């Protein structure tokens, strides 16, 4: 090989080494340059972090508000369920108390309060109006035979007020928590609606027989009370004789109805607010139970409460 050829080979080798060296150096410079961020990009990044933080705080606040709302609702549901349980308990108790003729001292305090509220809220007025409407509708579809033997029986022991000053509206004034006045209003409403039914029956030609659990010795007083209250034209008034005073009221009333049917009377309807008159023998074709929240002598309880 010539000297020129050797020189060319060395020159080519030098260039190759120079190229590799430059390439390695360039790669090293790229690796060492690191991560670079402009100020604009950094601003956007920090803003994003702040936004995410605000959203998280808002979410936490919303969750706390929702939890508190759920707790409040649960409290209301518990209170409603307790009230509903009290009402159901008293409703069942009242039914059994009326069936068995329980006395006032056997009536739970919570039920006495609910009974007063039943009057004060106007529910008693709605119930008794509905019941009387049913009775009037029933008798309007029938025609009395006109022989005096087709009769309607009406219990008079719970239809009079002790004071005649009450208005026809059940709730005109309620000032007392235990409401002696509203009880009188309820009793007066019972009297008013019963008298209205009585007068409609008489106008339609029905024979009406009134009955009481009181002694025969009170007949004159009872008759005067009936007349002063507007009752006129009844067929007869049944009251207890001496030998009937010790008799259970259910047995006494059943016995009277049985005697009437044996004498040829047809009992077309029986109206009372007490269960002792609506159970037993010889009830007739149809019975009507007048709502009676005063059955447990709440007057006694209110007087005791106010003294």
Automatic annotation (TrEMBL):
Endpoints of the signal sequence: none
Keywords noted in UniProt: Membrane, Transmembrane, Transmembrane helix
Keyword Mitochondrion in annotation: no
Gene3D superfamilies cross-referenced by the UniProt entry: HAD superfamily/HAD-like
UniProt-listed InterPro entries: Acid_phosphat_B-like, HAD_sf
Membrane-spanning residues: 44-67
Name listed for the protein in its UniProt record: Acid phosphatase
């Amino acid at each position: 090989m010539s000297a020129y050829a050797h020189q060319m080979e060395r020159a080519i080798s030098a260039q190759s080494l120079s190229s590799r060296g430059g390439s390695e150096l360039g790669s090293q410079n790229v690796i060492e340059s690191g991560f670079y961020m402009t100020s604009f990009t950094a601003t956007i990044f920090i803003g994003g972090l702040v936004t995410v933080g605000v959203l998280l705080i808002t979410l936490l606040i919303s969750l706390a508000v929702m939890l508190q709302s759920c707790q409040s609702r649960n409290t209301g549901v518990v209170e409603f369920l307790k009230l509903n349980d009290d009402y159901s308990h008293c409703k069942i108790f009242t039914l059994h108390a009326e069936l068995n003729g329980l006395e006032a001292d056997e009536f739970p305090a919570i039920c006495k309060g609910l009974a007063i509220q039943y009057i004060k809220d106007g529910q008693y007025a709605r119930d008794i109006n509905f019941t009387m409407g049913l009775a009037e509708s029933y008798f309007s579809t029938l025609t009395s035979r006109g022989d005096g033997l087709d009769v309607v029986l009406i219990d008079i022991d719970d239809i009079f007020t002790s004071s005649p000053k009450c208005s026809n509206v059940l709730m005109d004034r309620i000032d007392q928590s235990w409401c002696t006045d509203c009880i009188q209003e309820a009793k007066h409403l019972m009297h008013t609606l019963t008298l209205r039914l009585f007068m409609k029956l008489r106008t339609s030609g029905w024979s009406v027989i009134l009955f009481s659990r009181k002694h025969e010795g009170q007949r004159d007083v009872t008759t005067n009370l009936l007349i002063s209250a507007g009752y006129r034209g009844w067929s007869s008034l049944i009251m207890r004789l001496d030998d009937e005073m010790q008799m259970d009221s259910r047995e006494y009333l059943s016995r009277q109805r049985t005697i009437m049917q044996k004498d040829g009377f047809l009992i077309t309807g029986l109206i009372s607010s007490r269960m002792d008159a609506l159970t037993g023998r010889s009830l007739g074709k149809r019975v009507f139970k007048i709502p009676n929240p005063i059955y447990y002598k709440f007057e006694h309880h209110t007087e005791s409460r106010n003294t």
